[in-house]
Specification:
Strand content: under 5%
Number of strands: 2
Strand order of the largest sheet: 1-2
Shape: elongated
Oligomer: single chain
Radius of gyration: 22 Å
Distance between the termini: 53 Å
Order of helices and strands: HHHHHHHHHEEHH
Low-confidence stretches: none
């Protein structure tokens, strides 16, 4: 069995509600590994260099924190790509007022317990927040959904935005063309939106301008 599969299976076997570990926990593990590699001596090479691939001059020392993130965050991919799966719908039903994709794309800091009562959802969102904070990805994401998103409340009460999903405008990034928020004429030509949707487009443009750039 390869090293990657070994560590992945260890993390997957940990019960969900207890699968969150602080970064200090992984730091303590790294120190134990260093004391083993350099028997209680001063470090000659830092772990970041040793964790590089062998072809890049490292020793492929495992980054246990990354393995931990990868093993647990595959559920987020399922929340977004296979929302019709029974277990995804079961977890989605525990979310209060927001969809799980909206929580994934929300701005940090985020308190998962405010939006879900499911221990699994809370644990996964805490791990996801930990990863985003580590890589400084704390702002709203344009990959969030148009509907059931707390930054765009009109879509929760207007059923027309649900119809937009059927023509390909499911996520906020679908409203962008070449990195810029598309004009109504461009979206209308692309998705065949009727002219009566112009006012709804204006509302969405105004809300998006508060969080994302660039907008026309």
């Amino acid at each position: 069995m390869c090293q990657n599969e070994h560590f992945a299976k260890i993390y997957v076997s940990i019960p969900e509600p207890t699968s969150f570990f602080s970064k200090s926990f992984f730091s303590s593990i790294d120190k134990l590994m260093s004391s083993f590699l350099w028997p209680n001596k001063h470090l000659r090479v830092c772990n970041l260099l040793l964790q590089r691939q062998r072809v890049k001059g490292g020793l492929a020392l495992p980054n246990l924190m990354y393995y931990h993130w990868a093993a647990n965050l595959k559920k987020i991919v399922c929340w977004i790509q296979v929302q019709n799966a029974d277990w995804c719908q079961s977890e989605a039903n525990t979310s209060i007022s927001l969809s799980l994709p909206a929580l994934v794309a929300a701005k940090l800091p985020l308190s998962p317990k405010q939006y879900s009562s499911c221990p699994v959802v809370i644990s996964v969102l805490r791990i996801w927040s930990q990863l985003r904070q580590h890589f400084k990805l704390t702002d709203f994401s344009i990959h969030g959904p148009v509907c059931n998103n707390h930054i765009f409340l009109p879509a929760k009460s207007d059923p027309v935005f649900t119809q937009w999903q059927r023509v390909g405008l499911q996520k906020l990034c679908d409203l962008y063309i070449d990195g810029t928020f598309a004009t109504f004429n461009a979206l209308s030509a692309k998705c065949k939106l009727p002219h009566c949707n112009l006012f709804r487009y204006s509302i969405l443009l105004n809300q998006s301008a508060l969080h994302f750039q660039p907008c026309p």
